Each structure stands twice: as structure tokens, then as C-alpha cells.
Amino acid sequence: MKEPFLSVVMPVYRAQEYLEESIRSVLSQTFCDLELILVDDCSPDQSGSICDDAARRDERVRVLHLSENIGAGRARNAGIEAARGQYLAFMDADDTMDTDIYEKAYRALKGGTRDMAVWGVTEEYFDRAGALAYTNVIALADADCDTKQKVQDTVILLEEKILFGYQWNHFYRMDLVKEHNIRFEESVIYEDYFFNLEVTKHIRSMAVLSAPGYHYKKRMNDSITTKFIPDYFALATRRIESMTELYRKWGALDGQAREILVNMYRRYIVSGLMRNCDTRAKMSGRQRKTWVCELTASRLYLETAAVCSPKQMPLRLLQSFLNNGNTASALAMGRLVYLVKERAPLLFGRSRKIT
For 8-12, 241-245, 338-342, which range has the lowest pLDDT when averaged over its residues? Predict the structure, then answer.
């Protein structure tokens, strides 16, 4: 069988309610030269059977049934090992795409001369009844980054828009991924980001599409939004530090890049304060206060405090509280954000630019 141009890897676990629509979203693409690798991560529901049915109906579908549950990142790694395409893409088993987004990305690759393509995202927020409540479009202007300098100029803008850290809105050159043995880490969050960071270290060109063709479904019962992640702030800090180090290595840590990263770091601090209020954090008032004191004494905070000038009023207030040692007000801000998240999750979603 002829090797496909594109390999699409979809990890599958407890996805029976949405899986058929997600599979159809890939197979109905106007760009047809692809294979879909469904990685059944030992799912306990009917997802495995749905995968097998899809393979029987369409010869472009292959199914890997894993003998044990290993998580989405390692399931994607299994799909990478099995992939045969010139380019690699990913898809989540509960999302959808515009039917022409792969064709647009293929054209943006300029005959396969670009190492990566990135496109926009349409976030879709659903209420507790499962009805679509509102959408949020995230996109960057079209850009053909045909030099390393243009790539460097654009990556930080993608990161600011939170488009850089996802894997399902990318095409990756397969030989680059396999040559450098780039794989997903075992991490609850940001494994996509760290995968992309490693790829970006080796690319020389990139295409950016303004089309928000991936539909990221944000449901109230979503496991990631409801799961408590003890290492959240440590991983978020690592995210900032790793991008800062990359731009420092590139010699491109200029005013714009630094400002974007520092503002992102402040938003992560708000999230950290909020998450510390969760009962699953098991933190007393004294422990939350100690957390703030240790934060403001940390190397990253001290390095960024002098150069941070947040654009948004809540972040400016937080900056003032922390710089002036007003721990009580910083903790109160975290408590307020936590209460909004718990009691009005859709409102919290709309305000996520500061959290």
C-alpha cells in the first residue's frame, strides 16, 4: 500500500459518546491522502469496538489496541511508532475539525517544504446540560515563516495566543520527529507544549494559518478541567522557564518576548493562588501564606518583578500586592477567582485570559 502523506494519531479512552463524530471529522476531510491511527488505550467502554467498526468501513483506518492503560501521551507515542506518513498530526477523541482544515494546511506547507504548520482554534464551551453556551476563536494572522528568524519571531506570538502549546492544531514533518526521537512526556498537563518545544528546536520553517479550524470542546464534565493537579504550578513555571531559555539560546529574548512570558507567568500565579484554595490541595491558611512568601522569594519571580508591567488590571493589582508584601490581598484574589470557577464555571471560562 502506498504510504500516505499524513498520519493522524488519535488516542482513545472513555470516548464512546463522542468518538464516532471525531473519527468522521478526520475521514471527511477534503484532503484524503491520510491514514488515521486509532490508539485504543485499553478503554473500558465501547470505544475499542467503535474503532474496529471504523477500520472495517474505511481502509485508511488502523487500530492499535493497547493491553494496558498508559495515558494519552504514551498512547500518542505508540501511534508515532506505527505512523507511515511524511507528516504527522494528532486529534483528540472528543473534538471535531472543519472539513477543509487539512487541505488548507497542506497548501500552506508549500509542497512539503515547510517543517511545520499551525492553525487556529475555536473553543466551544458547553453548559452542564450539554448545550453549547458560547465560542471563543483564537487565531494568528497567516504567515509563511520560511526562515529561522521568522520562526523565532512567530513562535512567541503563538505562545501568547496559547496556540503553540496544543498538538492537534499542527502538522509536523515526520522525519524530523523520528530523527530526533521526539516523544511525549508522561505528564498530566503541558505534555503537548513540551513536545512542541522539542520540535521547534529543530525546525527551520513554519506555516501559520489564520483559519480556526480545530474545534476544542470544553465540557463541564471534562476530566482535565475537573481533575486536581498537585504539580500544576511547578509545570507552569517550567513552561515559562523553558521558553525563556529557548529564546535566550536563540539570542532573541528581546523586550516583546520577555513581556509576553512575564505576563503569562503572572497569569499562572493567579491560577496557582486559585488552585491552592481547592480542598484537594489540603492547604491551611498558613500554608497558602507560606506559598506566597516562597513564590516572591523565588529566582524566577525576582527576575521578572522589575520588568513586569501587566496590561490587565487584575494582573496589575496582583503585581502590586506581591511587590508590596500584601499577602492577604493576593490570597483574597486567589479565593475570589476560585469561587467564580466553582460557582460560575462558564463565567470563569470567559475570563480565562487572566487565569
Answer: 338-342
d(CA 93, CA 19): 5
User: What pTM was estimated for this model as a whole?
Assistant: 0.92
Q: Is pLDDT above 60 for 301?
A: yes
DSSP state of 132: E
Question: If DSSP codes are grouped into helix, strand and coil, which group holds residue 204?
Answer: coil
Residue 207 CA to residue 117 CA, distance in Å, equals 5
Is residue 243 domain-shared with residue 338, that is, in the same domain?
A: yes
In a domain, 1, yes or no: no
Is there a contact between 22 and 15 (Cβ–Cβ < 8 Å)? yes
- Rounded to 5 degrees, what angle do the CA atoms 126, 127, 132 make? 40
Sign of CA dihedral 134, 140, 144, 149: negative
Q: How far apart are CA 267 and CA 272, in angstroms?
A: 9
Decide which of 224, 247, 263 is a domain's last residue: 224
